[in-house]
């Protein structure tokens, strides 16, 4: 009996140590900063958000409308140039690195990324008549937040989640994630505040953000017209290579009835 008690105490101590470790490194599990793309050629922009300098680029800067892009957690936003040039010819496309990514200063966090999204929007709005937002994976939570704080024309969400909390609980079922997580990106709780046309694109074989999480968010968008597209055969990282992805985006952005 004494040996069993000792074993239980040892296992509990190990569990607590693992929980503390996960708590301490949690942001490194959410954000994967990438270096700047030194060879990228486009109009560069910088903006200062309360002392933190953000760096990025604008494609098609002379257009009346703008599309602000919020990328994935380990994504080089400039890698989408070819896709965006083809899909968003009528938009100025803003590709701004998150804090700590590329040449942007600071460290990423939910509050910081939300504040930066507002600053990027406000700068873009001073140059364009209407703004839309496109959020992919991690960036979908930023885009949903922006849609609740600023007027958007359209909102595109690629591989969006209901919340990072739900994804983390799925990945780490043995830990009380809801008690440990600092950055929750709880899009589903904000969804009812979104009132602009939304396109949700999910990948059939997505193992990082399973489509069930995207479905939950879709159902929560009760005050927005929602367009749903499930890309057959696609996974989380290759979904943009499928023709059905481009077709869904083109139809959504060119359908005047959506605006």
Q: Could you please describe the fold and organization of this structure?
A:
The structure is a single chain. The radius of gyration is 20 Å and the shape is globular. The model has no long low-confidence stretch (mean pLDDT 94). It has an eight-stranded mixed β-sheet, sandwiched between helices. The chain is built from nine helices and eight strands. 39% of the residues lie in helices and 19% in strands. It has 259 residues and is an alpha/beta fold. Strand 7 (198-203), helix 8 and strand 8 form a beta-alpha-beta unit.
Short description:
With 259 residues, the chain is α/β, with parallel strands linked by helices.
What's the topology here?
Blueprint: H1 2-30, E1 43-49, E2 52-59, E3 65-70, H2 81-87, E4 91-96, H3 110-125, E5 130-136, H4 138-149, E6 155-158, H5 164-171, H6 177-180, H7 187-190, E7 198-203, H8 211-220, E8 226-231, H9 243-254
Parallel strand pairs: 3-4, 3-5, 5-6, 6-7, 7-8
Antiparallel strand pairs: 1-2, 2-4
Helix pairs in contact: 3-4
Percent helix? 25-40%
Uncertain stretches: none
**Measured distance between first and last alpha carbons:** 70 Å
**Strand portion, in percent?**
15-25%
Topology order in helix (H) and strand (E) letters: HEEEHEHEHEHHHEHEH
Write out the strand line-up for the largest beta sheet, numbering strands in chain order.
Answer: 1-2-4-3-5-6-7-8
Q: Biggest β-sheet: count, sense, barrel?
A: 8 strands, mixed
How many H/I helices?
Answer: 9
User: Which overall shape is indicated by the principal axes computed on the Cα atoms?
Assistant: globular
Radius of gyration: 20 Å
Structural category? alpha/beta
What is the mean predicted local confidence, pLDDT?
94
The strand count comes to 8
Oligomer: single chain
